[in-house]
Amino acid sequence: TGSWSSVHFKSYNFEADGKNTESGCLHPLLKVREQFRLLFVQLGFEEMPTDNYVESSFWNFDALFQPQQHPARDAHDTFFLSDPICAQINDRDYFERVKTVHEKGGYGSLGYQYQWEESEAKTTILRTHTTAVSSRVLHKLASDYLNECKSGTNVEFKPRKYFSIDRVFRNETLDATHLAEFHQIEGLVAGRGLSLADLKGVIGEFFRKLGMKKLRFKPAHNPYTEPSMEIFSYHDGLQKWVEVGNSGIFRPEMLRPMGLPADVRVIAWGLSLERPTMIMYGIKNIRDLFGHKVDISTIKSNPMCRLGLSES
């Protein structure tokens, strides 16, 4: 009809940018978790299997020389399970050695001098820390070493380095820095003659590579480490020092029943994944980072976190 000739068409701008294509975005926790994992691997650490969220009280507490009357084992701190209600312990000899060291001591210790209950050790829980994984791995390391020694050859204990990053569960009151479900980073080094100086050096280097140079150490108490230290990092957003982890040297009462040699020491540290992430991203409330209150738009708006994994 020719009517198009009287219609005004808007000029087409061939220089204009098109609409950005929608793409997936990694959650800050996933970004930082992968950076932690990469750092451990670069430092020569082996990753421990962490697929058992359900754990027995034996591996979570008793194997760590934590007494059965310890407050951390109460229902207000730990999630107990009714199904399964009882766990099976495969290594009965080790089970009895742990019982003995609790009741009567050994390896220079008097123990706790109480009646250790097998039924309590077999209760099932949601693991409260990934140190339960470390206890299993160290027990296997000791068992493999003892089996090699039985061959009659002169076996030298080989230093080992392990790490894990996974979820743990605690029956805690929720606030700006605490959740009932969170992630824990665990690292440990087993070798002859290790000391507290080695532990502080490893932790300092570890956080320095993450760009977190403001660290403080505070003496602490743990049933399974002696000496023990809490680790603090300065949070610029909160304008205060925030606890980011715990550390120490595993006690002989934990290691010797496993079968590790007397001069082998294990330095270990456990770090929250959420709190370092909060410091790196300037997040003030942990519930804005993990949980049902997270604003999805913050995931898209956050730039890639540069952790400064250089030697400088």
TrEMBL record:
It comes from the Eukaryota. Keywords: Aminoacyl-tRNA synthetase, ATP-binding, Cytoplasm, Ligase, Magnesium, Metal-binding, Nucleotide-binding, Protein biosynthesis. Its cofactor is Mg(2+). Its main location: cytoplasm. GO terms for biological process: phenylalanyl-tRNA aminoacylation. One of its GO terms (cellular component) is cytosol. Residues 31-303 form the Aminoacyl-transfer RNA synthetases class-II family profile domain. Its EC number is 6.1.1.20. GO terms for molecular function: ATP binding; metal ion binding; phenylalanine-tRNA ligase activity; tRNA binding. InterPro entries: aa-tRNA-synth_II, aa-tRNA-synth_II/BPL/LPL, Phe-tRNA-synth_IIc_asu, Phenylalanyl-tRNA_Synthase. It is found in: Cytoplasm. Signal peptide: none annotated. Belongs to the class-II aminoacyl-tRNA synthetase family. Phe-tRNA synthetase alpha subunit type 2 subfamily. This is phenylalanine--tRNA ligase. It comes from Timspurckia oligopyrenoides.
